[in-house]
Amino acid sequence: MRDFELIELGPGTGRLLTDLLPTVQKLRASPASLTLFEASSELRQVQSKALATLSNAPKPRWASTLSEALDNPNEQPVIIIAHEFFDALPVHVLHKVPSKTGTESQWREQLVDIVEDPNPGEPQFRFVLSRAATPAVALAQSVCTIQPQTDSKVLEVCADGMSTARRLAELIHRRGGAALIIDYGSDTLRGNTVRALSKHAITDVLASPGESDITADVNFGHLRHAVSGVPSMRLWSSISQREFLLRLGAAERFRMIARSVVATDESDEEIDNRLLRLQQDYDRIVGVGEQNMGTVYKVAVIANEKEGVPFGFANRSG
Ligand SMILES: C[S@@+](CC[C@H](N)C(=O)[O-])C[C@H]1O[C@@H](n2cnc3c(N)ncnc32)[C@H](O)[C@@H]1O
């Protein structure tokens, strides 16, 4: 296996890496170098501690900008992982408003304004609409989200996500490799999906800026459009996490682990408990419905189409 660089965008607590690295080590496919793109200094410390629990993990290089993350002079092929990263990038929300003449509609961007307060204290915020079309409107038009027949009254476009996807495609085009994107969203999004989460509950987006996680569904169709600007690069999207993992053999793997649990000489009660936990974990990642991740999360891959169809995407047109 050729040496490669593993880049994770937004590693969070580092949990994905501490699960993934020992597994790829067993397959003798460890990355020669590891780059973590992380904006938060607190999370970098958490990631550092998590990685320190592994033996033989490559020493990570942290990057605080995308350019830093992608500018490793070693020119090895790259495997890029972005799990719940694109949903954290800022989106532009656009609203359809009637024109002054009333004959046709126009698009305006939702902006944040400070509420004039006669008793200044904590600033309060409110949403307003731009007076004229902004560059985000032009971007949405360029990706065909806004067409004369668009029936939706609210749309989103994520300029950061699109430019990130394009830069990943350019990097993979130059150095070889692939990017795996796992996130919630779909190929064709409509409406305003921006929401704020605080302590696992949905909260007012404007209430405490900086203290809640603001997220929006990922428009994989827009990312695909961005990638298509790079010759021979393509984004395969968006298959459900359930379908992707089943195609990669998740059910067979589940049965293998279950058999190995039953074959231990532990007590019946302990075996039952471990099988129950295994089933619960399996259901959480491949199960359907809002309470599970199987159909809510989608998987997309950016790769060079000359390399063939990525695993899990055969027989898909997207
Ligand atoms: C929801 S967490 C993802 C967690 C992790 N990937 C996982 O699978 O558990 C989002 C991550 O992206 C990082 N992040 C969000 N926006 C970012 C940005 N603009 N630049 C760099 N990192 C960012 C956050 O700090 C966090 O590590």
UniProtKB/TrEMBL annotation:
Cellular localisation: Mitochondrion
Pfam families registered for this protein in UniProt: Methyltransf_28 (PF02636)
Predominant place of localization: mitochondrion
PANTHER family: PROTEIN ARGININE METHYLTRANSFERASE NDUFAF7, MITOCHONDRIAL
InterPro entries assigned to the protein according to its UniProt record, in alphabetical order: NDUFAF7, NDUFAF7_sf, SAM-dependent_MTases_sf
Domain of life: Eukaryota
GO MF term list: protein-arginine omega-N symmetric methyltransferase activity
Name of this protein: Protein arginine methyltransferase NDUFAF7
Keyword terms: Methyltransferase, Mitochondrion, Transferase
Species for this entry: Gracilariopsis chorda
